[in-house]
Structure formats: C-alpha cells, structure tokens
Write a structure and sequence with these properties.
- One of its GO terms (biological process) is cAMP biosynthetic process.
- It is an enzyme of class 4 (lyase).
- Keywords: ATP-binding, cAMP biosynthesis, Glycoprotein, Lyase, Magnesium, Membrane, Metal-binding, Nucleotide-binding, Receptor, Signal, Transmembrane, Transmembrane helix.
- The chain has 34 helices and 40 strands.
- The chain is α/β, with parallel strands linked by helices.
- It has 5 domains: 226 residues, Rossmann fold, CATH 3.40.50; 168 residues, Response regulator (Rossmann fold, 3-Layer(aba) Sandwich); 154 residues, Response regulator (Rossmann fold, 3-Layer(aba) Sandwich), CATH 3.40.50.2300; 196 residues, 3-Layer(aba) Sandwich (Rossmann fold); 218 residues, 2-Layer Sandwich (Alpha-Beta Plaits), CATH 3.30.70.1230.
C-alpha cells in the first residue's frame, strides 16, 4: 500500500515521442518513501481511438501522465496542426509546470501517427493504445486525448471514449452538432453558436448592415442548425435575411456544378451588404469565398466567418490575389475563440510569448516542427493556433493539480466537472459542471456543461493571414447558460454623432459629449445594456448633410446625437435626440427632433421669472444668432408674460464684440456667447457689481473650458448665470444617482464636464427607453418616446412628450405646432458660475418646471387677440364662424362618446377600462370648494386621452369612467398616460396631497397598515405623486353589446365588464391593474413596449375563479399598499358595470 506522506516536488519531463523504439522517454526515478510503482496516466491528444479496459489503481506519488497527441485531420493544414501542438508543448515545457503539478507527477506527450492512408481512425488509435498500454509493466492507465480535430472525427470517437472513460481535451470542432453534453469531450473555447451570435451582433451593431445574407452547405452536418438560429435571432429583432446560398455537398465530393451556378445567380441578385458564411471548410465553401472576392458587385460585400474557416482563408486569398483588387483593408471578419498571439493587452498572452520563445530556443525548427522564432508575429492564424494549444496545456496542468483526482479514470473525469473554473492569468475558462440536483442550477451552478469558453473575439482579416482585433466586436456570455437556449440578441439603437472637422469648438464639444455617452454603449454583455451604440461620422461642417445622407443610404442609422448645425436640423428624415446646437436657436417644432435639455424658450422662462422675482426693472438683450429675429420675438413674449419691460435689444454680428455694449447695471440676456467675449465679460462683471448676465446653457457648455479659466477666483462668477436640468457633474460624494454612475463610468476627473454628463444622462435615458422596446427603428423610437410620454432614468426625468392636440382645447386649432410637445426637460435650476467651482453653493433659483403659456385663454380658450380678430370680421364671416364654432364644440365634447369609435362586433374581444378616484367622498367632504374644479380637470384629461387613443366613453357617473377600446394596446397606453398626465397636471393646490397624506396616517393608526406615501421625502413624493389619485382596472373579453335607446350610446354587459370593474375595485389610487387576459391580448412586440409586474392570482368579488393580476408600471418608483381584496362595496354603492343602475360607487 502507499505511504501516506507527500513526496517532494519532482521536475516534470515532457517527451515528444513518435512511438518508434527508443523514442519514448520515461523517467524511472523513484520517490523516497513511496512504496508504489509508477502510475501511468495516458493523455490522448486528438483523433480516433478505443482504449484498454478500465483499471482502478490507488493514488500514488509517482505518476506519469501520457498525453496522446491526436491533432491531425486531412482537412487541416499541417502547419496549423504543428502550430497548435507547438503551443501545447510550450505550455508543458514552461518553467512553471513543475511548480503547478503535484510532487511526483510527470508528463509524457505521445504523438499518434496517422494510418497508412493519412487518417486517424478509431481502430488505429485503439490498436495503438491497447498495444502500448498492455505492453507496460503497470497495467493501470488513465489515457487522456489532446483533440481530436473535426466534428465527424469527434463524433466517431465518442463510443470509444465512453467505453473507456477517457477524456478528450480541447477538441477542435466547428459546428453546433457535436457541442452538446458529453462528459468525454472537454471543450475549452466558446461554442460555434456563440461565434454565430458574435458574427450576427457585429453585423447588426457595428457594420449596421441592412441586407444580410447567409451561406451554408447541406448534407455535411455543418451550418444547418446555425442557419435556423440565425433566422430566429433576426426575427426577434424585426429583421430577416435578404438572401440564402446553399447547395448539397459532401466531405468527399463537390456540389453539382449546375446547382451551384443556379444558387449563386439567385443569391447574387439579392445584393447583400454582408454574408455570414457558415459552410464546412470544403471545396464548395472555398469556391463561394473566391467568387465573393472576385466577381463584380460582390467585392465590397462584408464577409463574416467563424474561426474554423480560417483553415481555408489563406489558401483562398492566395488563389485570388492575381484576380482580385481586394487588397489591404479587406471587409472580411472572423470570430475567434482566444486572443491573438500579438495582443499583449492580456497578461496571459505576455506569458504565452515568453513560454513560446523559450520553447523555440530549446527546440529549434528541425525534425519535429518547422516553426521559426517569432513566427507568431508574422502569421496571425498560426499564432492563434499556438495560443489555443498553449491554453489547452495550461488547463490540463490545472486539471492535474491534485493527485487525489488521478486515482482512476472515472475519478479524474468526475473531478473535471466539480464546478471547475480555470484562471489563466486574466483569461477565464469555465465553469464546467456535471449533473445537478434540486435547485442548484437556479442558484447559479453550471450543470451538464463541458464547454468553458465564455468570450468570442472578433478580428479583421487582411492578406489572408493578418488578423487585427476588433474590440467592439467581443462577445461575453454568462457561463451559467452553457447549453441553454441561444442568448437573445436584442434590437440595437444605431446612433451616429457627427464630428465637424473644421470647427474647433464643435470638435471639443463632440469629444466631451462622447466621453460620457460612449461609457454606456454596448460592450458585448448581451441584454438591454448592450443595445445602445454610437458611431462616429467625420465631415466638414459644410458637408454634414451629404455625409449623413450617404451614411443612411449604406448603413442603419436610428438617430443622431451630440453636436449639430442648422443645416443638419433642417433634415426631416433623421431623428435627432437632444441636439447640441452650435448657436442659439428656437426649438424645432417637429416630431423628429426630441429635446432632453432645456430649450431656449424654457431657459428664458426660468431666467425671466428670477429677474422678476428679484425686482429687476428692465432687461437688456444682446443676441448673436442666425435667427436673431425669432429669438428677439421670443424674448419679447417671455418678458411680457412676467410684465417686464425690455430696455434695449441689440443684434450682434459674428464679428461684433460685447465690449462697450454691456450696461453698467441691471440684468442682461447675452444669447450667442463667443469665445473672445469671455474676458471682456469677466472684466465688466468685476467692475460693475450691479450687473447680472444670463447665457444659454449650450453657450456655457460649449465654452466651458474658456469660462472656467477666465472666471476662476473672480467675483463676477457669482453673476454670470445659466439654467440647466443637470445635477453638478463634478460634485464629490454626490447624492445624485446619475452623477455617481457618471463618475464610476468616467473615473478621469479631467473629463467631468457638463457636456460629458449630458452625454451620459442622454445614454441612460436611451437605455431606459430601450428596455421597453422590441423592434428599434427611427419611427418606432419616436413613437415609443411619445407613447411612453415620460422617461425616467436614475434621478433624471423627461417629459411628458405629446404629439397630439387635446381636442377639447379650441385654441390648439389656431396653432397645431404648439400642440407637439417635443421637449422634456423638467426641474430646471438657475446656476451661477461660482457654483460650478463650489457645488456647496446653492442655486440662484431652485429647480422648477416652467409652464410655457404666453397669454391667458379667454372665451372658448382663445387669446384676446384671437377673439378680437374673429369679432372684427365681416358679419357674414362672423355668423359662419359662430355656427362653425358651435358645430366644432359639439363635435369636440362629443368625440369621447362618438358611436363611430365604439366596439360593435360581438365576436371581437373588447378591452374595458374602469376608473375611480380614490377617497373621493372624503375629498368632497374636506374640500367642497376645490373638488368641482379638480373633477372637471379630471374629466377633461380623461376625455382627451379617450379621443387620442380612439377609444369610447361608455358611461360616466360622478367621478368614475367606463371606457371601451378595440385595441388592448391603446387601452394600456391610455391608462399609463392617464397616470402620467395626472402626475404632471397643475392642480393649483397641494391640499389634495395633504389630504391623502392624512388619510394614510389615520389608517395606519388603526393598525395593520403601512402608509406607502405618507412618509416619503417631499422631493421624492413630488416626483411620484401629485393631485387626484385614480385607480384603474383593465380586462379583455367578449361582451354582450347593446345600443341604449335612451342615451343612443353603446353599453357592454356580461362577465367581461364585471371582471374589469372588480379589477379596478381592488386597485389602489394611482395604480393600474391588468388581468392576464388583458395582458396576453397584447402581441409579443406590444408587450415589449409596456412594463408590468405580476402580482399573482387574486380572488375578485362575484368572480368564481381566481384571476391573475399584473400591475402596469405607469410611473416607475411608485409603491402601493396590498390589493384591496378584503374591501366590500359600501351600502348604497353600485357597479358601473351593471346597466341596471345609473350610478357608480363613489368612494
């Protein structure tokens, strides 16, 4: 029996043997104190093989590990096989090997020669291993393979490996067919499915290809599954393949020439921009690649290849180099399963290079290989194979790290799946795991996982063998997924920012903006965080429009971000998200331009309100802009709102300076600040302490460095003011969640600037928006913004956005442009530049959201000027106007009850909405003078939304509504908008909120109730709650539809109306509840647009079976008390769902 103590570490010896007499080197040195003989561990390196029967041995200290090298395949070039084996040899020959292995463990590499026909069949390997093992003095063997190469070969080996409990380390395969749970195959790289996903992601997010094709061969068990996965993945993001090339082929014969020609012609007619090539590395695939590189019309098509096709790319290039002009920067991209040998950004690669260099010095090119020193620096494909082999050696050494694991073959195999993870410096391989029990998988265990690669690398190929890493193409997968369903690829937002080359201010501003925004772009970790992408487009300022149009014709462009000029904003076919304009201008009132920063108009309202509050007698204005007249008119109108006279208004040309034009005291609007205005402005403010100067935010942000340099330490900094909705970008230990995230993402303090934070906040808003979107196009992006209305990201909020006029507002008929609310900045504060330097200083004016109302509406919602214009018309025109107004008013106020909107088809499901004001009886008792106006506003808001979404007002009694919708999505959107509109409505009082606060506290005193809102911080409360609280219930189903002869309106009877009413009844104020029927009436794409939380099943009164309830997250962050399941109707209360009553419960 074995001696118990552990022997000293022995130096591990590697011998590369060709299995000829005398070539195999065995270290027969014994270990002191060990009574056992040698234990031989056979490690088989690639190819076929059946081995001797199982023999169990005791754990001994003197162990020889034999690695059977089976790296050979007739379809693999010999230089690639030699490179892979050289990398493996470099690993096991390294000086660190003896340190990593247990004492007494030795390695011996045995090369298994191919048969006479040059192929490694299982029979050849079996014959060899049986002969070799049986001839040894110790019949206890633990053979391990290195390899094999090829899907068919690996599949052929499996029965042999299973019978003999042998593990094949680092098999080199190319398709998904063999990548399933087999304990005997130990893959150390990411799967072909992961490579396919990386290729798809790169094509969609980085190349932004609109027309993508696919190629594979039938009949060779390679590419069929990948084609199916590609179709499904693209379908999930609303895309499809533009073309498919496929022909029947085989491992031994080419495709029929006529069939190939017909398939090629058909495929070429689809004019793909890119092609994913997943053909087996056979002649037909080579022929396809050659045609793609030589035929006119195909030379500029991007080719995307999995790593296995590197076996043929160099030969293909050499065969076409005399024909094609495709040289240099070739649009060929290939996925990789390990870093390149020259990519020294990885510590592991630095150590690989050391090991490789030492090995090649000790074993120079000769009989066993022909690899020269530093060959991996000149041929990147060979170098990549070397890294693969080196990693296989590193993993094997780690796997042999405990002699207890080497007890016998089964013990060794089992040890490989004990949640094994290998840390190769900064590369991680694993987790490997076996069969799991209970909830292990759900708790994070890797189960039935024999593949350890979780990263796919992307490279660009040039000259057939030169590879260049593409960092933006890397894909990282969660190791716990392993063989679960293919990870989902979400539809990306392909953003573009334009770098205007000949404008220094624009260049600096673009760099600052992207410092923040780029920190949030996709990094290859799949999920909603990998959906926002920004791409740089370089152009002279005068050619920006042409550059954008060209870009849009060639690649997907969802939206434009960052710095823009006036010419770009004139484009109506491009979506602009929060454009940073180089000079001040009024907002563009179009739905394709969306503002997240305060518009100039909003800033002027904040500034004018402060000036009026401070008792300013008059305001002077200096305006430098191409639209000076429009801005001057805007300034005049804003001043009139606050009864503030304009002292002087001066229009400046670009060459004019502010020197001599600034007054000695008073408030000044300086709109259109220039760089050489800053020093004269600072001096003037120092000399005249009675002057305050207001500048637009983008003027300040674009010249941030100049302003902070000129004003630091000067008293005038307290009186240079600007308005912003951003928190302080450079505040340490900030309370703002946005700022904390910004600092984590951009740790370089020199980059903490307002434009960088603006870029980061914009990116967070887009991420929040995308989390509720399915398909992403320019149109769906804009629709989603107006549909969601309010965007919340961290502590930033934007909206409500609205693109439809309220039909009850007659004034909107005179100016439809004002009905499009395409700006969303809220909580706009007035800052001094002094606060920029010291965040502890208070704002000049605390954050507020201005209401952009210029004139008080009078009769019929018209301004005085509009009313006078009507009255001064001719008598005939006046009569027609009055008659027309009467008809229009009738239509407007009847629209919600317009029978044309009513669902009438009894065989079509109807989505019913019930609403009710929470605690309305108590509110009427507490505020009898306030409630009439509040309920009137409540009715107007709901009716405007009913019309907007094409729904139908069934009945209204008191303060409750019953609404019918043909579209479930319209119903859900209406309910969500209702909550957001109530939140942002100006109720003119806080008394309603104070009452709700008191009602909650009274209920809490009774016991068993935790107030959801009464104890909120006032700032948090204002973001979540305001005014009347309405509870809403939604249900979808068939109804008994009848036309009421008295009201001449439609009513809806039956279980659907009853369940909808009961659903509303158990809701809390401010809460929207959907039944399962309503939620699943939405399509898959529509469900992507809404955010819900499942509340489980609820028992509703008079409903026989429990109903599954979902809560719509209409206002993210709101928390509610438990559903009111215990509540019963008070005496005298009746249901709106019953046509037998004319009243609704009024609670």
């Amino acid at each position: 029996m074995c001696v118990a103590h552990r022997p000293p570490v022995m130096q591990m010896l590697l011998v590369l043997s060709l299995l000829t007499p005398g070539r195999g080197l065995t270290n027969n040195s014994s270990t002191t104190g060990n009574a056992c003989g040698n234990m031989t561990v056979h490690v088989c390196v690639n190819t076929t093989g059946n081995v001797c029967g199982n023999t169990t041995v005791n754990v001994c200290s003197n162990i020889t590990v034999k690695v059977y090298n089976l790296i050979h395949n007739p379809n693999m070039k010999q230089e690639y096989a030699r490179a892979l084996v050289a990398g493996f040899n470099a690993s096991v020959n390294s000086t660190m090997t003896a340190e990593r292995l247990p004492g007494g463990v030795k390695l011996e590499v045995v090369y298994v020669s191919p048969g006479s026909k040059g192929a490694m069949t299982p029979d050849v390997v079996l014959e060899h291993l049986e002969k070799k093992v049986n001839s040894s003095h110790n019949h206890s063997t633990l053979p391990v393979m290195l390899g094999p190469v090829g899907d068919v070969t690996a599949e052929h080996f499996l029965p042999v490996l299973r019978r003999t409990n042998i593990v094949a380390f680092a098999p080199f395969t190319g398709s998904s067919k063999i990548r399933v749970w087999h304990k005997n195959l130990y893959f150390i790289t990411a799967s072909p499915t992961a490579e396919l996903l990386a290729l798809l992601r790169y094509a969609v997010t980085q190349l932004r290809l609109e027309r993508l094709g696919f190629m594979y061969l039938q009949g060779v068990s390679f590419g069929d599954e990948e084609y199916r996965l590609t179709v499904n993945a693209l379908s999930n993001i609303g895309r499809g393949l533009c073309g498919l090339f496929t022909v029947k082929s085989s491992l031994t014969a080419r495709a029929d020439k006529g069939e190939f020609e017909a398939a090629w012609k058909k495929f070429a007619e689809t004019r793909p921009q890119g092609v994913i090539v997943f053909g087996s590395p056979l002649h037909d695939t080579k022929e396809f690649l050659k045609r793609m590189q030589t035929e006119e019309g195909m030379k500029k098509v991007h080719l995307l290849l999995p790593s296995v096709l590197q076996l043929i790319t160099e030969d293909t290039y050499k065969e076409t180099v005399g024909v094609t002009t495709r040289r240099g920067k070739s649009p060929i991209y290939v996925s990789g399963t390990n870093p390149l040998a020259k990519d020294t950004n990885y510590k592991a690669i630095k150590r690989f290079r050391e090991d490789m260099q030492n090995y090649l010095k000790k074993e120079p090119a000769g009989k066993h290989h022909s690899i020269q020193q530093h060959h991996y620096d000149h041929n990147d494909i060979d170098g990549e194979f070397m890294v693969y082999g080196w990693l296989a050696g590193e993993v094997l050494k780690e796997a042999l790290g405990n002699p207890v694991w080497l007890k016998d073959r089964k013990t060794f195999m089992d040890s490989l799946y004990k949640q094994r993870r290998y840390m190769i410096d900064d590369l991680v391989i694993g987790d490997f795991g076996g069969e799991c029990e209970g909830m292990a998988r759900e708790h994070g265990a890797a189960c039935e996982c024999n593949q350890g690669g979780t990263v796919v690398y992307m490279n660009r190929i040039e000259d057939g063998h030169r590879l260049f890493p593409l960092k933006d193409g890397s894909l990282m997968l969660a190791s716990s997924r392993c063989y679960r369903d293919m990870p989902q690829l979400y539809a990306p937002l392909s953003g573009v920012y334009v770098s205007l080359e000949n404008n220094a201010i624009a260049t600096r501003a673009t760099a600052a903006f992207t410092d923040g925004a780029s920190a949030l772009t996709g990094r290859g970790q799949l999920g909603h965080g990998d959906r926002f992408f920004l791409h740089r487009l370089t152009s002279p300022a005068g050619g920006a429009v042409r550059a954008l149009e060209k870009e849009m014709s060639e690649r997907a462009v969802t939206a434009v971000f960052g710095v823009v000029n006036d010419a770009m904003l004139s484009m109506s076919n491009v979506v602009f998200i929060d454009p940073v304009t180089l000079s001040p201008r009024p907002k563009v009132a179009r739905r394709n331009v969306l503002y997240l920063s305060p518009t100039l108009e909003q800033q002027l309202f904040v500034i004018a309100k402060n000036a009026a509050t401070q008792g300013s007698d008059a305001v002077s204005a200096l305006i430098r802009s191409k639209d000076a007249a429009g801005i001057q008119e805007m300034v005049r109108k804003v001043a009139k709102v606050f009864n503030m006279p304009l002292d002087t208004t001066v229009t400046l040309r670009d060459s004019d300076r502010v020197s001599g034009r600034l007054p000695p005291d008073g408030d000044v609007l300086l709109i259109g600040l220039a760089a050489n205005d800053i020093e004269p402005l600072a001096s003037h403010l120092d000399k005249h302490p009675g002057v305050r100067v207001f500048v637009p935010f983008f003027d300040f942000a674009l010249l941030y460095d100049n302003i902070t340099s000129a004003f630091k330490g000067r008293p005038g900094a307290e009186r240079l003011l600007f308005a912003t909705n951003l928190p302080h970008w450079a505040e340490g230990n900030a309370m703002s969640e946005t700022v904390r995230g910004f600092h984590r993402a951009v740790p370089d303090k020199s980059k903490w600037t307002p434009l960088a934070l603006l870029g980061f906040a914009t990116g967070r808003a887009i991420q929040s928006l995308l989390s509720r979107m399915g398909e992403v196009t320019s149109e769906t992006l804009v629709n989603s913004i107006f549909t969601q209305s309010v965007i919340t990201a961290d502590d930033m909020q934007y909206g409500p956005f609205s693109e439809k006029c309220d039909t009850w507002d007659v004034a909107s008929l005179f100016n439809t442009r004002d009905c499009v609310v395409n700006y969303g900045a809220v909580r706009i504060a007035l800052w001094s530049v002094a606060r920029v330097f010291d965040p502890s200083l208070p704002c000049v004016a605390e954050a507020a959201t201005p209401s952009i109302i210029y004139e008080k509406r009078g009769f019929l919602g018209l301004t005085d000027g509009q009313l006078i214009g009507v009255l001064n018309g001719a008598l005939f025109i006046l009569v027609l106007a009055i008659a027309g107004s009467a008809l229009m008013l009738s239509k407007i106020f009847q629209d919600a009850r317009d029978n044309r909107r009513a669902p009438k088809e009894p065989t079509d499901p109807v989505t019913l909405i019930f609403t009710d004001i929470e605690s309305s009886t108590a509110l009427w008792a507490a505020h009898p003078t306030l409630m009439p106006d509040a309920v009137e506003a409540h009715h107007q808001l709901i009716r405007s939304l009913i019309v907007r979404y094409g729904c139908y007002e069934v009945k209204t009694v008191g303060d409750s509504f019953m609404i019918a919708c043909r579209s479930p999505l319209a119903a859900v959107q209406l309910a969500g908008d209702l909550q957001r509109c109530f939140l942002h409505h100006d109720w003119g009082t806080t008394a309603l909120d104070d009452s709700y606060h008191e009602f909650e506290l009274q209920k809490a005193e009774a016991g068993g109730y935790v107030p959801p809102t009464a104890h909120l911080d006032p700032c948090v409360y204002r973001e979540l709650w305001n005014g009347l609280r309405v509870r809403i219930g939604i249900h979808t189903g068939l109804c008994d539809i009848r036309l009421d002869e008295v009201t001449k309106g439609y009513d809806y009877y039956g279980c659907t109306s009853n369940i909808a009413a009961r659903t509303e009844h158990v809701a809390n104020g401010g809460q929207v509840l959907l039944t399962r029927a309503a939620y699943y009436s939405l399509s898959t794409a529509e469900r992507e647009q809404v955010s819900v939380t499942s509340l489980g099943e609820a028992t509703l009164r008079d409903v026989p079976d429990p109903v599954e309830i979902y809560q719509l997250e209409a206002v993210p962050g709101r928390e509610f008390a438990a559903l009111r399941l215990e509540h019963e109707l008070d005496e005298g209360e009746q249901d709106i769902s019953s046509s037998a009553t004319d009243s609704i419960r009024n609670e």
